């Protein structure tokens, strides 16, 4: 009996310590985001921190919520659906929201609709049409971002910046989709290229705003290693995973 009680106490102490870490780390991240925004004359309130929860489970999401996080990102539809289902069973987590940030295959769309408040990774016209069709079938409108391969890396998916102007009108005309903005990823471990990538996304958004008249309020870019640069270049949403959840993470 004593051994079980001691074990339970030990687990609770570990959870309490991890919760304290999440709160401290969140305060640091918010300060860094605010400083990056102010350094270029931006209002820090324009930038949302998305906690990428793909490497943690529901218990860690609950602790992160207690630490102040409200919005989480998942890159696998089945994990998104599982975590949303678990969160919805807990009334204290009623204000938690999830985004779909990873590659999305057409045969997994049904797992995302109704579970994601925003789909970041619409990387092709084929996928946009499929989301539109499934959304209309369910009589819902799915907020989406167009993924743009600004850096031109062969390993990354997304629309070519040179061609996106040719497809944006078609996407705008699809029922069941609400186009909210753009998303990109920068090459890892190269801050100069990251800055050019994020600047390119911002300039592309400005061009599309002029051409389409859409506000396109969301620029999703910046991750654990480059989020401050992304904020300086106009990001309205940064996707942070390891730096949020991993106590061992160190900036490079």
Structure notes:
This protein has one domain: Alanine racemase (TIM Barrel), CATH 3.20.20. Helix 6 packs parallel to helix 7. It has an eight-stranded parallel β-sheet with strand order 7-6-5-4-3-2-1-8. It contains nine helices and eight strands. With 252 residues, it is of the alpha/beta class.
SSE arrangement:
Layout: H1 2-38, E1 48-52, H2 58-66, E2 71-74, H3 77-88, E3 97-100, H4 109-112, E4 118-122, H5 125-138, E5 142-147, H6 161-172, E6 177-183, H7 191-212, E7 218-220, H8 227-232, E8 237-240, H9 242-245
Work out the number of β strands: 8
CATH homologous superfamily? Alanine racemase
Low-confidence spans = none
Class derived from helix and strand content? alpha/beta
Question: Judging from the principal axes of the Cα atoms, what is the shape?
Answer: globular
Q: Which architecture name does CATH use?
A: Alpha-Beta Barrel
Number of spatially distinct domains: 1
Spatially, the strands of the biggest sheet line up as 7-6-5-4-3-2-1-8
CATH topology: TIM Barrel
